[in-house]
Specification:
CATH architecture: 3-Layer(aba) Sandwich
Strand content: 15-25%
Shape: globular
Largest sheet: 5 strands, parallel
Low-confidence stretches: none
CATH class: Alpha Beta
Helix content: 40-55%
Number of domains: 1
Mean pLDDT: 92
Length: 145
């Protein structure tokens, strides 16, 4: 099984951006943990990050051709991007939406996800463990997408 982990804008700043909200681990540290866990679970994990909407669309489309699913933290694009939503809807593999924080406990504009309706599920509010829980879901539900 191959899973893409896709991170959107500003997630490259993890560890220095509002650590009281997002934690002290950097994105490379989170990605390393996921690759290791993936190896233990028999999953090949490939990680991507971009601050650019069109590049995220390209990566999602590639996931539809090259992966069995994706874990997506679209960052602010969760709330604003019809293009990212349409890419998720089009690719034909399950996508799990993840967030480090609980958007429902934050500002009103963060409570609306354009992605939720086209994702298999959403995991939020568990910090870096949100990614871990998503990867475990893929391991337990291989082929049932």
């Amino acid at each position: 099984m191959k899973i893409f982990v896709i991170n959107g804008p500003n997630l490259n700043l993890l560890g220095q951006r509002e650590p009281e909200l997002y934690g002290s681990k950097t994105l490379p540290e989170i990605e390393d943990d996921l690759v290791k866990l993936g190896s233990e679970l028999g999953i090949e994990v490939t990680c991507f990050q971009s601050n650019h909407e069109g590049e995220l669309v390209d990566i999602l489309q590639d996931a539809g051709q090259s992966a069995d699913g994706a874990i997506l933290n679209a960052g602010a694009y969760t709330h604003t991007s019809v293009a990212v939503r349409d890419a998720v809807a089009a690719i034909g593999v399950p996508v799990l939406e993840v967030h480090l924080t609980n958007p429902y406990a934050r500002e009103g504009f963060r409570r609306v996800s354009l992605l939720a309706g086209v994702c298999k599920g959403s995991i939020c509010g568990f910090g870096r463990e949100s990614y871990t829980l998503a990867l475990i879901w893929f391991a337990r539900n291989a082929g049932t997408g």
